[in-house]
Amino acid sequence: MTDRAVAVVRAGVLTTVQDRGRHGHAHLGVPRSGALDLPAAALVNRLVGNPPDAAVLETTLNGCAIRPRCDVDVAVGGAPCPVTVDGRPVPWSAPVRVPAGAVLEVGAAVSGVRSYVAFAGGVAVEPVLGSRSTDLLSGLGPAPLTDGTVLPLGNATAARVRADVAPQPAPPRELVLQVTLGPRHDWFTDTALRTLTTRAYRVSSASNRIGLRTDGPPLERAVDGELPSEGMVLGAVQVPPDGRPVVFLADHPTTGGYPVIAVVREPDLAAAAQAAPGTPVRFVAVRRR
Amino acid sequence: MRALPVGDGALLVELGSGAEAQALHAELLQRRAAGSLSVREIVPAARTVLLDGLDDPARLAAQLTAWDIPPLSARADEVIELPVRYDGPDLADVAALWGVEEQEVGRIHAAAEFRVAFCGFAPGFGYLTGLPERYDVPRRATPRTAVPAGAVALAGPYTGVYPRSSPGGWQLIGTTDAVLWDHARVPAALLAPGARVRFVPEGP
Fold first, then answer.
1. Is Cytoplasm set as a keyword in this record (chain B) (predicted)?
2. pLDDT tens for residues A204-256?
3. Beta bridge partners of A212
4. How many CB pairs under 8 A join A and B?
5. Are both B138 and B179 inside the same structural domain?
6. Closest Cα to residue B50, out of A240, A31, A254?
7. Considering A76, A94, B106, B186, which has the largest number of Cβ atoms within 10 A of its Cβ?
8. C-alpha span between A34 and A36 (Å, rounded)
9. pTM of the model as a whole
10. Residue B71 included in any domain
């Protein structure tokens, strides 16, 4: 039991391997992918002495359980959750040494959606196009974890950070997303633009790594018909025919044919990743920098 | 040409036609290779080119209009040849739409020279243009739940080749054994935007 690897005891509803994503291949139809809450992933990496681009685990709502085959420093952050090692509580958002063969239990999120689990050395699955991220839209990268999956770890490169606990922003009670209008705001009525930036929406339970879907007043189009496919950016607020805005997250398609009414500022997307279904959403129009 | 700002760091450049978009895309690639353009992603599409990861989108937007962009035909690129068997299950439907005999479909298709206008839908799935407009066909009324990898298909003005098995609504006219996508290969995609392509009928 000394090889540098971890075994998955309980995979949870959806646990994936994520790093900072696959950049520079959008023109081939390859989504960026990567951790949805990048600051949280970077922080847990720092806590165990990893560089910020090391691969971590991203859980969804109900955590996961992992049995390392070697002694390893671990940190859990992102969505707050109970963390135990062989049943004993250990700190969240702090480095913890897990002995070989012990079970690290990452519990269900108390609030928020996605917890991040960093192992010293990082998850060392084979990279695809420069990234270890699981891309759920196009199927690149490792498959989502299943019970029994064994993941290799890299060699720890640095000493863990001396920190008892690292503060992290609480998941949002209300998700406030700053948006700049366009590029296709002229496809919508003035009323629709006012509706988007003044009315309340809620995070829909149909949200996933591809997009944060919303429930709320539909946005009315001023221009009918189909838009020829065009390139899509992270944070694009696309409006499908049902009129409910969808915010594109990391696994979003690289091109799309529904008009983008606005784009969410990138720093606000980490909070979007932690907004559970039902969370109120407000879109606030800001000026372009 | 119209450059629309997208968020804080991107531009969507809208052009009058697909051919103009392809010409701008080629020009952008050349400028990036020459080091005079710094951008993270250049994503061409039907009539637009998206530039994502720009330091100063407003400045580039102002400069773009002054560019002298040569038409694509002036660029001599290597042609990628894709072996094809015109044996698709929608051959008869396409022949009817085109008003020709079934065996004419492959002849007409193989006579055209294509360019990859853009990629999307799946890694390595190219939207190829090159057939005259009169050969545009609608998508199938009911999409198939599984189209096999290597299927050569038509929809609207485009020809596409499915890189892997997936659901799809395009009209299937043929099959190729070419590997369109292999992420262990460099480059992973056989067809990238801007590539010239010919379909070469196989066998007797």
1. no
2. 999 999 999 999 999 999 998 889 999 999 999 999 999 999 999 999 999 99
3. A247
4. 107
5. yes
6. A254
7. A76
8. 6
9. 0.94
10. no
